Structure formats: C-alpha cells, structure tokens
Amino acid sequence: METISATCPFCGCLCDDIQIVVENGKVLEVKNGCSISKTLFTHHDPDDLVPQIEGKKASLEEALDRAASIIRQARFPLVFGLSMTSCEAQRKAVELAEFIGGNIDSTSTFCHGPTTLAMQSVGEPTCTLGEIKNRADLVVFWGCNPVEAHPRHIARYSVSPKGLFNPAGRRGRTVVTVDVRATPTARVSDIFLQIQPHKDYEVFEVLRALLKGKDLRIDSVGGIPLDALKDLVNKMKSCKFGIILFGMGLTMTRGRHLNIEAAISLVRDLNQFTKFLIIPMRGHYNVTGADAVLTWQTGYPYALNFSRGYPQYNPGEFTTVDLLRRKEVDAALILASDPMASLPRQASSYLEEIPFVVLDCRKSYSASFATVFIPVAASGVSISGTAYRMDGVPVLLKKVLDSPHPTDEQVLDGILKRLRQR
Amino acid sequence: MIRITKGKVYDPINGINGKELDIWVDGGKIVQVGDAPDLVAERIIDAEGCIVMPGGIDIHSHIAGGKVNLGRKLRPEDHRKDVVPRTETTRSGVGHSIPSTFVTGYRYAQMGYTMVMEAAMPPLTAKHTHEELHDIPIIDKGSYTLMGNNHFILKFIEKGEIEKVKSFISWLLKTTKGYTIKIVNPCGVESWKWGKNVENIDQQAADYAVTPRQLISILSQIADELGLPHSIHLHCNNIGVPGNYETTVESMKATGTNRVHVTHAQFNSYGGKGWADIHSKAREVVEYVNEHPNVTFDAGQIVFGDTTTMTADGPWQYRLYLLSGNKWVNADVEMETSAGIVPYTFRKKSLVNAVQWAIGLELMLLAEDPWRAFMTTDHPNGGPFTFYPQIIKLLMSRAAREEMIAQLPRRALERISLPQITREYSLYEIAIITRAAPSKLLGLHQKGHLGVGADADIAIYRENPDVEKVFSSVQYLLKDGEVVVENGIVLKSTSGRILYVDPGEEGDIEEYIREEFEKFYTVTLDGYGVPENYLERGECVSCG
Ligand SMILES: [Zn+2]
Questions:
Q1: CB neighbours of A320 closer than 8 A, spacing ≥ 6?
Q2: Distance (Å) from CA B302 to ligand 1 centroid
Q3: Residues A167, A248: one domain?
C-alpha cells in the first residue's frame, strides 16, 4: 500500500493536494478530493478499451494507419478538443495541425471564447486565486455555480479559507451571487440577486452608470430593484479587495462577449476607488493550458487555421461550431473532448457525415460514432505533465496508476510520422 | 571541424579589433584561433568581406512566461501585420512586438544573437516561463526570478532575520531554476495589491515595515555573498514618473559598493515636476554610474512605433493605462508579484516620447565605460528587439542621429543634450556592449568571446556601408559549432541551453517555511518548483 500525491484532473481548480492510497494498482482511498475527484480516481478502469475502426476491434498500428489516411485525404481537416490533456500533448496537436495546414480549436469555442474576445477588446484586470484567499472581502459570483461545477473552489480559494490579510475567513467576506435561479451557490451567499435571463449586459451598464454617479430614473433593471444595485455598487466601491468570478451564465447567453466587456469595464473602472479584479471560471481542467500553448506557439488562443502556412485567427470563421454548422471541414481529429455530447446538435450532427478520429481515455459518446477510436492513457491519472489552472497557474499532473494505453502525445506523434513519410 | 577564414574578427575579451584571423571549430567549441597547419577542416566558411563576432547576448528581454503570453493573447491586431509561414526547417508563427516562441528564437538567431535572458519570472508561474523557453529554439536562455515583493523576503527583513532571507533566496533560485535576483518596484508592487504604490525609496510597503532602500541594500549584499554570477537586477521605484532620476540615484547609493544592475535606465532618468516640464537627467544618472564601478545599466531605448508594454510593475502599468486609455491587463500573483500590460505607440511628434528617445541614447553615449553599459529596448517595452540594428546605427553615427533629431518637436531640443553629443561607437565597442560585456556581466566564461575553449556561438555579418543592414541579418550563424543560419535563412531549429544557479545555501529553509507556505499559497510546496525535466538542456552555472 502506498500514498501518492496527485492533482485532480477534473475542473479548472486543479487541486494539487490530493492524496491517493493505492494497492496493487487499485485505488483504495482518495483524500482531500471532492466527490467528482473520488469517482474519477476510483472508477478509472481503462483495461477493456481497444482501438476500433468503424466499430470493429483493430490493432493500434491499424488504427494509426487509418487515422493518418483519413487526415491525408482531407482537404480541410479540423483538430479539436485539447482541454482534458496535458500541455505536452497540446503542443504535439499544434504541430500536427500546422503540418497538415488544417484548423485547430479548443473547447473554448463553446465556453469562454467570448471571454477572450472581450479581453482582446478591453483587457483584463485579474489575479491568481491566492489573492482572493489572502485579501478579498467582497466576492461576487456571476452566472456561475461553483458549488456544483468547481466543488472545492469555495472551500479552497474563494469563500471560506483564512488568508494572510483576512484571518477571519468566511466571516471576513461578503459573498454575492447574481444568477437566473437560486443555485446552491446562491444559497451559501450573503446576498442573492436574481436576474432575468439575458439581462446581464443591461445590469452591468447600470452598475457602471451608478458608479459614475449618474442619476437613473428607473425602478429596476433585469428584474433587480435599483436600490439593490445601488447597494451593490456601494459595497464594491467600499470594499478593500473585490473580485468577480463569472461563468457560462455570462459567456453563453445573449450578449456573450459584450456581457464580458461590460463586466471587465466595470471592474476596470472600480480600480479608481479600490482594488477590484475578475477571473473567468474555466471548466475543463486544462482548457486554460490549451489557450496558453496555442498562444505561445502561434500568437492566438483558439479558432486557428493554418491553410496559408501561417496561423490565422478568426472566431466565427475558424471556430468549431461554425466550421461544423456550415459543413466546411471534411474530416476531424478529436482529442480530450466529447463534442457530440457537448456541442449544439446542429453542429455536432455534421460529424456523422464525415470521417473522424477520436482519442480518449474512455469510450465517450463521440467515440462511439468515430470512424477510428484510439484509447489513450488518462493525463493526470496515468500520465504526468503540465496543466494550467483557471487563473493561469501551471500545476504538475502526476501519474497515479499504470495504463496499458499510449499517451495522446504518442498517438499524435504516430499519426504525424505516418503523414511525414509520404 | 569547421574553419572560418578571411573574416575580420572583433573579439574584445581577447583584444582582437578587426584583425583577419582563422577560427577553427570542433565539437561545439572553438579549438584554435589563427593559423593551424596541422588541422584539417571538413568545411571552410569563406568570410571574406565579413565581420566575425561572438554571438550576441541580450541581458534583458521579455520573451517567455505568463505575462508575455497574456500580451500575445491580448493583441491579435499586433500579430496580423507580421505573419511567419512554416518552412521545411522552421515552424510558423507571428512576429512584431510579442513574437510567438518559435519566431522569437529564429529572429534573434537571424540577427546573430545566441543568448537571451528573460527578465522577469514569477516563482509561482516559473514552470510556465520554462515551458515557453523550451519552445524558443536555437538560443541559450536564462531567467531572473522576481523577489522584490515576496512575502517571505519582506517578512524576514521586517523581523531582521537576514540569514533567513539569504537561505530563502538561495532556495528560490534553485527551486525556480532562476539565474539571479530580479527586483521590480520594491515594496511598491506589494502595495499595489491594495491598489497603492510607494512614492520614494524610504516609504514602507503597505503590509510590511520595510522600505525599498532596505530591501535593495540587503538583497544586493546577499547576491554578492552568495557569489551569484550576475548581480541583483533592479527595476527602480517610480518608473516613468517625471523627476524620478533622484530615486534612481538613491537606489544605486543604497547598494553601497555591492554590485547592482539598473535596468532600462531610460525609463528612470527623468527630470521635471510633471509631463509639462519633463526633461533629460541622463547625465546625472550616468555620472553616478561612471564614478561607481559596482554599477552597470542597460538603456531601455525606445523605438518610435507601436509596441506592447509589459512589466511586473503593476501600479506603473495602471498609470500608463490611465495616461493612454488603451486596453489594460493586470495580473497579480499571490504572495510575490504582479504584472501589467498596456499597448503603446511611441510617436516622434510627442514631446514626452521625443525626450524619452533621446535619454536612452544619451545614457549610452555618456557612459564612459562600454563594459558597464548595455544596449536593450527592454523588449518589448521600448520597442521590439528586432530594432537593435537601428539602435546600433544611431550609436555609431551622429549623422543618423541628426537625421532623426530633425524630425522631433523643436521644443524637445532644449530638454535634451543629445544634439551636442559627438561620440560615435566603433564596431569594437558595439562588440563590447552586445557580446563581451554581457558575458562578463552574467559571469560566463565560455561565452561572449572567440578564444580557444569558448562555446562556438559565432555571428558572421556581411560588411555594408549601412551598418543597420549589417546587423539586421547574419551571413552565417554558428550555434554550438553548427551552422544554423545561412544568408538570413534558418537551416536548423536546434534547442539551446537553460542556464540557472544553485548557490547551495538554502539550509533547512524549505521545511521552515512549509507550514506558512501551504497556509497562504494555493499550491502545495512540493508542486511549486520547476522539476529538472522542464529543462531540456539545463546547465547549472557555479556560484562563488
Ligand atoms: Zn524589463
């Protein structure tokens, strides 16, 4: 029996304090982890997965050959996913996409892509999560529900921990949730402001106007009484250190990047009065790493195309949802993501019309439709490497259990070698 | 074996000034200089009509890490005007002010540079810096670890526990695989965590009874005691503020006789009470440097045009946002540092920018000792590193300077002394400030010269009456004895070394801080550092 330190490869919190008790290749206990983390490590059983071509069992070599031939024959291929694997594999995926002159995109395409657009427009005053723990006396959750989506965020980073300059922990903080329904996060907050769906932009702009001392002749906006917003602005101006944490309730509702621009602009303006910052709550554990690797290698974080030999960036043109919905790509290589389960149906259904390859550590929904499925070892469970937390802090992924399968990086390299041989 | 023949050699460390000499290269090293009848070369590089110099070394540039990458992400409009397609031997990417990693390596190599120091590495995100350095091909690299606003350092200083500061610094350099102590706006960045700053070097940090003067003094002493190959690397308080030259001079004084490198001095040599009467105080700053052999500086020269400013000086970048109204990124790092990014355009027609432009050149031209003056743009803060050839030309030609001065606002002329300065750098002096002196400053013995035993990092430039053309693109670049660039084209994408230090005086500090660390950081102590496997070609440079 041995205890292994691990990092939880589930959500953007990337908790690196997990202790796993292992005996004979079986996980006996997961300490410190949330319920999802416990399930992830204890129910990891990759042994029955085998490579498949058109639903039939195949050898790894046959699967790699077929994958390479699909990509070779494609005129406008797509490499997609990247968010649940290590940066080492992401680097290899960029190399492959560049070599084939194809498109490459991450799951940002349907989560925080609008956050990137807003950042490119107005900037982003942000910080690492420890700044919240050590300093924040006002925490605002907007359109996100960490209690369910980032289970340890509240306890480990943002609400309850005692910090260097906040020794009182939870008692030293005012917690506000703005959402369209009373989520579990709203229930652990001091103040809950229920906002009408699709009204976030208006509410942010009213908050900005109030901050600038404008006199508004309205009683409420987005279903929130003006007095409640006045109270919120006063709290924001008078706190010592405030933070807005936001999720897909802002990025994927009407307004999208305009919502985020308004949120960032509010936070920026608040810095005339006090310290105020903002952090997007990224979902998949290494979607931030995908942004980072693509950016340092190409200059752009997602929605990329290499047809001209150099990286071109154009969300709306090279974003996966748009490429699929417009039926433009003619083959796809998918790794570390399950687009058929998570993309809008009108986009994902097109995958059934084209050949595509799936690399995954489990038999995902997409894998069951794939022309070629290649099982890979799970990063952070069977493979060590690097991943980036939602706040951009790099964290080591650890190897806990052996896997019979190759890594994403090895499979991508196998495909790339075949393509180069021609 | 490669023989480089008929070139004019400039090698200041060995006192060679333009003499025609053969250089023999084997196994990545220089094995013979001059005639060698016994040696047989497999390849002869005919360097007739060429200048032969050691590979260039940039001692201060922002090329990798979280802040740089946020800058890239922020600016698609910067990339679109400078795209780089892939070739058979190179990867694709983008250039201009914040080049992608591959392009960063290629472009430095194409200009004849073989080593670049990343100037600001936050310990918490050091893995990120090293991941990017890994993806910057060809050149050797190292990183300065940010320490001027670190909780443990401030706390130990406050308690008077100087031995603990020393152990902690030794440990932090090893843990982050850093090269030296970087100090950015000491105590000011700590105060910025509450939206504040310090206004002079005797004002305490917001949360600690420590002044910048104390911190600079103690850390410069520790750098010398640890025998770090490079001194402390200091970004002074009050950057960009009119009247800040006094802070700069006081900061140099704070180090006594300990070594200190004052970085991007141009941004810290301003006189005046405000923007209306800003003027050059380059002379006052350089005078102190000239009289104190413990002090070195780099220029932080600005280049007219569009760039992306990025520093660990959060309060300064916020100020620059307020001044420019451009988009603003801030990135505070728990327990240790901050960062800010603002796009900025330096304009010839702007009085302030014209004064800034002159100050950088004045500093370089008034410095009496070229071994203690370094050419930088603080890439990309003053401008992209790709403008170095233009700056070399300005240093070497008074006529080129006059041509530029004629385009500046007339009101600027009374605020600067550049028009009166007649000095022109020689090629030999250019070789000092871009090769020989940087190697000495970094405490490296195998770099920056062409003597027997040196690393065979050799830049061969074709002579041209226009010196800007000479340094824009190499005829040949040898890195570790291999020809990696020929006629400006990258033939081979090799991987360079990562240089770091391990002073070995950390004692039991890691266990001493463990409990407090895990209480206030959000990562475990064991997961904090940079494991060996992040360094593809790591090389520990000895201290002492
Ligand atoms: Zn700098």
A1: A78, A80, A103, A105, A109, A110, A339, A343, A347
A2: 12
A3: yes
Q: Is B92's CB within 8 Å of A131's CB?
A: no
Find the CB nearest A271 among B73, B195, B335: B195
Residues near ion ligand 1 (Cβ under 5 Å):
B 119, 378
Question: DSSP string spanning A317-366?
Answer: TSSHHHHHHTT--SEEEEES--HHHHS-HHHHGGGGGS-EEEEESS--TT
**Cα B372 from Cα B362, distance rounded (Å):** 15
CB B94 within 8 A of CB B79: yes
pLDDT in tens, chain B (544 residues): 999 999 999 999 999 999 999 999 999 999 999 999 999 999 999 999 999 999 999 999 999 999 999 999 999 999 999 999 999 999 999 999 999 999 999 999 999 999 999 999 999 999 999 999 999 999 999 999 999 999 999 999 999 999 999 999 999 999 999 999 999 999 999 999 999 999 999 999 999 999 999 999 999 999 999 999 999 999 999 999 999 999 999 999 999 999 999 999 999 999 999 999 999 999 999 999 999 999 999 999 999 999 999 999 999 999 999 999 999 999 999 999 999 999 999 999 999 999 999 999 999 999 999 999 999 999 999 999 999 999 999 999 999 999 999 999 999 999 999 999 999 999 999 999 999 999 999 999 999 999 999 999 999 999 999 999 999 999 999 999 999 999 999 999 999 999 999 999 999 999 999 999 999 999 999 999 999 999 999 999 999 8
Asked if B440 and B432 count as a contact pair (C-beta separation under 8 A), the reply is no
Asked if residue A77 belongs to a domain, the reply is yes
Could you tell me if A54 and A146 lie in one domain?
A: no
Q: Would you call A280 helix, strand, or coil by DSSP?
A: strand
Residues paired with B143 in a beta bridge: B118
Query: Does the model's ipTM exceed the 0.95 cut?
Result: yes
Nearest CA in chain A to B340: A125
How far is B241 from chain A, CA to nearest CA, in Å? 19
Q: With a CB-CB cutoff of 8 Å, which residues 108-137 of chain A face chain B? A: 116, 119-131, 133-135
Torsion from C-alpha of A397, A400, A404, A408, nearest 10 degrees: -10
Which domain, by its residues, includes A219? 113-280
Determine, for residues B193 and A275 on separate chains, whether the beta-carbon distance falls below 8 Å: yes
Reported as a single tens digit per residue, the pLDDT across A45-57 is 777 899 999 999 9
Residues A272 and A308 placed together within one structural domain of the fold: no
A409: domain CATH number? 3.40.50.740
Closest alpha carbon within chain B to A166: B520
CA distance A383 to B525: 21
Distance between CA atoms of residues A119 and A117, nearest Å: 5
Asked if A393's CB is within 8 angstroms of B522's CB, the reply is: yes
Pick the last residue of a domain from A280, A307, A326.
A280
What are chain B's domains?
Answer: 55-450 (3.20.20.140)
Tokens 């070698």 appear where? A417
Of A99, A125, A306, the CB nearest to B330: A125
A77 and A166 together in one domain: no
Cα–Cα distance, B457 to B483 (Å, whole number): 9
Q: Are residues A139 and A275 in the same domain?
A: yes
* Number of domains making up chain A: 2
CB-nearest to A394 from B84, B125, B330 is: B125
Q: How far is CA B241 from the centre of its chain?
A: 21
> Per the structure block, which two tokens stand in for B136?
């910057």
Q: Is B30 exposed, middle or buried (0-12, 13-18, 19+ CB in 10 A)?
A: buried
3-state secondary structure of B349: coil
pTM of this structure: 0.98
Q: Following DSSP, what letter does each residue of B295-342 receive, concatenated?
A: EEEE-----SEEEEEEES-HHHHHHHHHHH---EEEEEBTTTB--EEE
Query: Are A379 and A325 found together in one domain?
Result: yes
